[in-house]
Description:
Blueprint: H1 8-17, H2 25-46, E1 55-59, E2 65-67, H3 68-81, E3 87-92, E4 99-100, E5 110-118, E6 129-137, H4 147-150, E7 159-165, E8 169-174, E9 179-185, E10 190-195, E11 206-208, H5 219-230, E12 241-243, H6 248-258, E13 261-264, H7 268-273, E14 279-280, H8 281-294, E15 298-300, E16 317-318, E17 320-323, H9 325-343
Parallel strand pairs: 3-5, 11-12, 11-13
Antiparallel strand pairs: 1-2, 3-4, 5-6, 6-7, 7-8, 8-9, 9-10, 13-17, 14-16, 15-17
Helix pairs in contact: 1-2, 2-3, 5-9
InterPro entries: FBPase_C_dom, FBPase_class-1, FBPase_N, FBPtase
Pfam family, one: FBPase_C
Domain Fructose-1-6-bisphosphatase class 1 C-terminal: 200-335
Amino acid sequence: MHDNRTTLTQFLIEEQRHIAGATGDFTSLLNDIVTACKVISSMVNHGELMGVLGQAGSENVQGEDQKKLDVISNEVFLKTNEWAGHLAAMASEEMEAVYPIPSHYPKGKYLLTFDPLDGSSNIDVNVSVGTIFSILRCKGNCVNPTAEDFLQRGTEQVCAGYALYGPSTMMVITTGNGVNGFTLDQNIGEFILTHPRMTIPAATREFAVNASNMRFWEPPVRRYVEECLAGREGPRGEDFNMRWIASMVAEVHRILTRGGLFTYPYDAKMQARGLEGKLRLMYEANPMAFIVEQAGGAASTGRHRILDIQPSSLHQRVPVILGSKEEVERLAAYHAEHDRGQAA
Ligand SMILES: O=P(O)(O)OC[C@H]1O[C@](O)(COP(=O)(O)O)[C@@H](O)[C@@H]1O
Ligand SMILES: [Mg+2]
Ligand SMILES: [Mg+2]
């Protein structure tokens, strides 16, 4: 049993006490998000016992096959967060258009974006999956918000977090004041603060990338990975370890726990499809970049800081490199060196 029994609810109320003029709306919104994640966690835990595994037989806006749990988790998130009057609208990886709060509910001043089930290709093989979310302030028309209202830089996020449905269920959040991790105590149904002030070591000898795409990568990414793979005998003079879970939530959580670099880089396959990356800026890259930076790490496309990108569309995709600062900076420097060479 963990000695520290601060619940997530207590933690949020304590944080609220330090914000002059706070109304409690934000705390209440986060409580609803936490409830949604508990519901999804329960379904993930029960798996086939609840009949929730397998394909839904539909495609999402990204052209990806939807799993039943993608669809159900999306619905859980909408229903749990629409009623309380804290939100002006929501946007999800699984829905083409913005979801307005139904007219019979009061409207609020926040916008919520989410990836209801991240890593869903792992669900049928019982490997960790998660939920990623981000909260923005509604600055424009909060009665009928449009996609435009969501197109705010990552630096504007009020809060970002993820739930990890792994051997234990965890919730990791930042409100711009460090990163804290909570573990779900299934016996009492509460998240307990177990990982206060999570920080990412600056240096690492572990990287995560889908190496099956190697032949499509740009030269700087290929160079970085080849140098890592060359190990002690190569230019890095050290042996590196490689991981690929194919659930970004699980990869980011490993990095928050013991450091490392994660990348889903731009490649020739994406170029051929007219895409700028694989991962979604609003639902995956921005929330994770906020968390990683708050934990002392860095997050870049290779050419720009992720949090500085001005989004151009709701479902925009970007290349992602995140994790231990020194490694992210090294890979970004390789991009700069390559681009200078191209320009010369
Ligand atoms: O199957 P690939 O190409 O290795 O891609 C895996 C990546 O795609 C994602 O699964 C995308 O998330 P979704 O399951 O929400 O679509 C990331 O979590 C992961 O890093
Ligand atoms: Mg995802
Ligand atoms: Mg998803």
